[in-house]
Design a protein that fits this description.
Blueprint: H1 13-28, H2 33-36, E1 38-39, E2 49-55, E3 78-84, E4 86-95, H3 96-101, H4 106-130, E5 136-138, H5 153-165, E6 171-175, E7 183-194, H6 199-203, E8 208-209, E9 223-227, E10 230-234, E11 268-273, E12 278-280, E13 289-294, E14 308-317, E15 319-321, E16 327-332
Parallel strand pairs: 1-12, 5-16, 7-10
Antiparallel strand pairs: 2-3, 4-14, 6-7, 7-11, 8-9, 9-10, 11-16, 12-15, 13-14
Helix pairs in contact: 1-4
């Protein structure tokens, strides 16, 4: 499989790239995990394996130098992580009659739907990888089944202390939302990503700072605010775990219970991210996403009356945790 996807159906590569670029820019700006991972740009005619690299810290030089004697020196340790690209895609069928008679610009709207579906699919794929990390803290208790309280400053400090102990670095730059593989500087912080249901509990934490109070720092459109050294962002795709706190019929107190039995509290993820915690092939660049159009009649004898067309998308991407110690998953309940 080639990762350089060049299939555009009945529209030229130039037209497809022109159509995709503004849509991708709009939807990339709304993605969360796309901003903070270590990137492996999608190259032309490469293998299906993405390779991410980390240079490990050197050991401390505790032995005093001897005059006139050249020390041995240190050889850097390099850790490589590999992840295999996978293709994802979908399409929308439409009729030639609908295209001729519908008052709305069908293909433009369908193109927007395809790009939105593509970006949210990739975002969910990244979330599924990240929330499978093994570094976990709980709002109370020591297991998911015991969770029945909301996020707290004490829990956040437990998570950030774990990151600091492992030499995790604040995120100081993000991957820009345009088609180029460049970065933009941001104020240093850890990033917390949550479902919108967790927003009010974060606002109730001591020391919460609203984005309106940031001053010279520009907030993201989906930013909730800051508590100490964590900037919180919300994403509707950071869904609760299918399971729930406690056993059937267990008490939930004042906690939300939507996905469960209405009695036991639902459990939400809070993903605390640091620099280079994970790697990804970003949904960017001219080869990142193909918009594929087949006009009515392009199927030949399979469509003898020129009745059927399709508009679809295809992409190849992957994600991988590069250091479990630099990523913490908090598990919390949410105030009803």
């Amino acid at each position: 499989m080639s990762v350089n996807i060049q299939v555009y159906g009945d529209i030229s590569p130039r037209t497809a790239a022109y159509a995709v670029a503004p849509l991708l820019k709009r939807h990339n700006a709304e993605m969360v995990f796309e901003k903070f991972g270590q990137t492996f740009p999608l190259p032309t005619k490469s293998s299906v394996v993405a390779r991410f690299r980390r240079f490990e810290a050197l050991p401390l030089a505790m032995t005093a130098l001897v005059e006139g004697v050249t020390p041995t020196g240190s050889k850097p340790t390099i850790t490589d992580y590999t992840a295999t690209l996978a293709e994802h895609g979908d399409y929308i069928p439409y009729s030639g009659f609908m295209l001729d008679t519908h008052e709305d610009p069908i293909l433009k709207e369908y193109g927007s739907l395809c790009v939105q579906q593509a970006t949210e699919t990739v975002e969910m794929l990244r979330y599924n990888v990240l929330r499978a990390g093994t570094n976990v803290v709980f709002s109370n208790g020591t297991t998911r089944s015991a969770v029945n309280t909301p996020i707290s400053l004490a829990m956040q400090r437990t998570a950030t202390a774990a990151l600091h102990r492992q030499r995790a670095h604040y995120i100081t730059e993000i991957v820009s939302s345009d088609a180029r593989f460049r970065t933009e500087p941001i104020e240093a912080a850890f990033i917390g990503v949550v479902h919108p249901d967790v927003s009010n509990d974060i606002r109730n934490m001591p020391g919460f700072i609203s984005p309106k109070q940031y001053g010279t720092t520009s907030p993201w459109s989906n930013e909730i605010g800051t508590v100490e050294d964590v900037r919180y962002l919300r994403s509707i795709l950071v869904v609760p775990f299918p399971g729930r706190s406690g056993v059937t019929g267990g008490p939930r107190g004042a906690m939300r219970a939507v996905a469960g039995d209405g009695i036991a509290a639902d459990v939400y993820s809070v993903l605390f991210l640091s620099k280079d915690a994970y790697g990804m092939v970003p949904l960017k660049g001219t080869n990142a996403l193909s918009l594929i159009a087949h006009n009515p009649g392009s199927s030949g004898t399979a469509d003898p009356l020129n009745q059927r067309g399709t508009l679809g998308w295809k992409t190849a991407t992957t994600s991988v945790i590069l250091n479990d110690a630099w990523l913490v998953r908090g598990e919390v309940a949410v105030t009803a």
